[in-house]
Amino acid sequence: MKIGGLQRFSLIDYPENICAIIFTQGCNFRCPYCHNPELSHPGRYEAVIPEEEIFSFLERRRGKLDAVSITGGEPTEQGDLIAFIEQVKAMGYLVKIDTNGSHPEVLKALVDRKIIDYIAMDVKAPPDKYKDITRATIEPSIIRQSIQIILKSGLPHEFRTTVVRSQLDKKDIAAIARLIKGADRYVLQKFVPTKVLDQRFMNEETWSDKEFSSVKKAIGRSAKQIIIR
User: For tag attachment on the chain, is the N or C end more exposed, with fewer CB atoms within 10 Å?
Assistant: First the structure.
């Protein structure tokens, strides 16, 4: 795999587990507010980390880490993702994957092979706004398909939406909430303009705490847990 980064320790990325985070390089979306532009835009790529270095690290951390979280970029863009995860699982680790949902066939393969333990999917917008928000050609049916695969997987999971005031309104969040009805967890993430793909978004802002609280109340029955982060 093309690995663009490694965070050796996290207490928050995988609920109730201590994990390492592997960042894959490459993404098929161009969300302007992306906070990992060095992983999503080819012009900003840095040197990749060899897989051997990753596995050597994981070998040394056996018994000290519970899990590995694979994020990006977009992990499902990696052709050898399944083989990589199988090797991680063989070492005894739990595996969490973060995805934008653009490759439901890969998600289904991971679920069917029973090699992942937790799924987090970023739902960028209601399906009809996806092309505008992601600046990519993506069919809405693909996003719906990935959501259904996750909801029916039987695996612990969460859906997440980053809220930029100029991009999404309360009706958009309500539409997303209907789409993921019955989910384990829905996380509304506050946009923080520290590092972005499109520099114009450094001047963008998120909602107020009052607005987030109002939306949380309005969509309260769509997921078992709704978190503002």
Answer: C
